[in-house]
Design goal:
Distance between the termini: 48 Å
Largest sheet: 6 strands, parallel
CATH superfamily of the largest domain: Glycogen Phosphorylase B
Number of strands: 12
Order of helices and strands: EHHEHEHEHEEHHEHEHEHEHEHEHH
Strand content: 15-25%
Helix content: 25-40%
CATH class of the largest domain: Alpha Beta
Radius of gyration: 21 Å
Number of helices: 14
Strand order of the largest sheet: 3-2-1-4-5-6
């Protein structure tokens, strides 16, 4: 059997398919399981996964459509029995790619908020999206046409770090934390696509949190993410006592993250990566649905405001919008105070002792 996994979204969404990949391999040990990605960081994240045979990278965003089509035609020659659009992928383009790949059976989701223009009909098997169901389980539903699986079989998310990256990270942490202080990782950024800059908790509150953890727990703060200007500004607000941990290589960041005792993050791929590494997570949520996106199978605390309007964002190509205006716009994030996040950090730290 030949299976192609279309992980065309970002790292966080692609990572939430990892429990399903393990189940496919365990139950179909002789299957050929390949992956198609369009972000280099996703390719880096899955390169060492022992359950995948090959990863194909097509740079849909930067190269010509003609070149992309040529690469898809080459991939089509593999004659896949199944191709699966990883959840969420509620866009016309993802369904068109799945159609052009020409697998025997094309599997995708039927989204609660969709329409004829998304061309879901080009797929052979559509699995209904279920509100408030975690993304890991939504992805598990996508492999049910191939396997008999139960929800409780979905294990933790997984990232496999190479020995080379581990060794580099060990040397780096020794240089940057020679006193072996307790390490807290922060990801204060987020994607800016679809207006998701509003996922970000206030940088001044992040700085206040970092200063309190340094003063009260003698912590070393590592700053993650490719928002380098934001991280530099945040470090300045902590009097240069933090360390910028991320590089342009995603797996450099992940290997360094492995040294964190706790991780504080907005709803981002780094939050899910911390969960995959089994790091206790304080997850700060605004308008996205925490029931569907909480840190999967790791000790965590959710910090959010229970507002009548939140969560309001659903899987769609449309940018997020807020019903509030002026000083109250995106108040679901603005109302979260430093004490709430700090107390959650203290709870997780105390549970380690």
């Amino acid at each position: 059997m030949k299976i192609l996994i279309n992980a065309l979204s970002g790292n966080g969404d692609a990572l939430m398919f990892s429990p399903s990949i393990r189940l496919l391999r365990e139950k179909l040990p002789d299957a050929e399981i390949d992956m198609l990605v369009m972000f280099r960081s996703v390719k880096e994240m899955y390169e060492n996964n022992p359950f995948i045979n090959r990863i194909y990278f097509i740079d849909f965003l930067k190269q010509s459509k003609l070149k992309s089509l040529s690469q898809i035609r080459t991939l089509k020659k593999n004659n896949y029995d199944y191709s699966i659009n990883v959840y969420p992928s509620n866009r016309l383009e993802y369904n068109i790619v799945n159609a052009f790949l020409g697998a025997g059976k094309k599997i995708a989701k039927h989204y609660l908020h969709s329409g004829f223009s998304r061309a879901e009909f080009v797929n052979d098997i559509l699995i209904d999206e279920i509100k408030n169901r975690h993304n890991v389980l939504q992805n598990l539903d996508l492999i049910r046409p191939i396997l008999d699986v139960k929800d409780e079989e979905a294990g933790p998310m997984e990232i496999f770090i190479s020995e080379k990256d581990k060794t580099k990270a060990d040397l780096w942490i020794t240089e940057n934390n020679p006193d072996n202080k307790f390490v807290a990782g922060f990801h204060p950024g987020s994607s800016i696509l679809k207006n998701h800059i509003h996922k970000r908790w206030d940088k001044k509150k992040y700085a206040e949190l970092g200063n309190r953890l340094i003063n009260d727990h003698n912590a070393k703060i590592l700053l993650f993410g490719n928002e380098f200007d934001l991280n530099a500004e945040l470090n300045s607000m902590m009097n240069g006592r933090a360390v910028i941990a991320s590089t342009s290589d995603y797996m450099d960041s992940i290997a360094r993250m492995k040294h964190c005792g706790i991780f504080v993050s907005n709803d981002t791929a780094f939050m899910h990566s911390a969960a995959a590494l089994q790091i206790p997570v304080v997850a700060i949520f605004a308008y996205t649905n925490y029931r569907e996106l909480f840190p999967w199978k790791t000790n965590h605390r959710i910090i959010r405001k229970e507002l009548d309007c939140s969560p309001c964002f659903y899987n769609s190509p449309e940018p997020v919008k807020c019903i509030w205006r002026g000083d109250e716009e995106f108040k679901c994030m603005m109302l979260i105070e430093t004490d709430e996040v700090y107390n959650a950090c203290n709870e997780l730290i105390s549970e380690m002792k």
